[in-house]
Amino acid sequence: MNYHLVPMDRSHLEQVAALERACFPDPWSEKLLEQELYNYMSSLVVAQGEDGTVLGYGAVQAVLDEGCLNRIAVFSQYRRQGVAQAILEAFLRFGRAHLAFLTLEVRRSNAPAIALYEKLGFVRVGVRPGYYRTPEGKEDAVLLTAEFTHEA
Annotated catalytic residue: which of 3, 57, 78, 117? Predict the structure, then answer.
């Protein structure tokens, strides 16, 4: 499968909003996604097929030297093909160049995502009890962080 990472722009909004609805119980709206495009602290990237199809996307927010991975999602038919890893690796390259750390939250039950994060160097640093709402109640969030060292 051929794809490339590109900065998200307005032409991706409809597909990314559909991806949000497919992946998250509390999806970001198309309007919120558009606002994030113009948020100077945010960086949104899409994995785009050769025909312009959005396969996945990620959103990072940076404040000074602290980064937070707010979103990463891949349409189910494109999972386990390296799309999420490519997006994460792009954000990690940015982190190594500009940040002290990059942190994220993930559902405790999302073992494949946790395994990918840990494979790429993220370390578990805590838990947010009951952070996510689910149809069954609430689920804990696992906090993971990748720290970057910079020579002075």
Answer: 117
Q: Which of 78, 98, 69, 70 is nearest to 2 (CA)?
A: 78
Domains of the chain are: 3-147 (3.40.630.30)
pTM: 0.91
105-145 tens-digit pLDDT: 999 999 999 999 999 999 999 999 999 887 788 999 999 99
The residues that bridge with 61 in the sheet, in sequence order, are: 42, 68
Catalytic position from the list 105, 131, 139, 147: 105
Q: Using an 8 Å Cβ cutoff, are 93 and 135 in contact?
A: no
Report the Cα 86 to chain-centroid distance in Å: 11
Report helix, strand and coil shares of the chain as percent, to nearest 5: 35, 40, 25
Q: What distances in angstroms separate CA 75 from CA 2, 22, 30, 121, 133, one per listed residue?
A: 15, 7, 17, 24, 21
Rounded Cα distance, 87 and 17, in Å = 18
105 is known as an active-site residue: yes
Q: Which two tokens stand for residue 104?
A: 């994220």
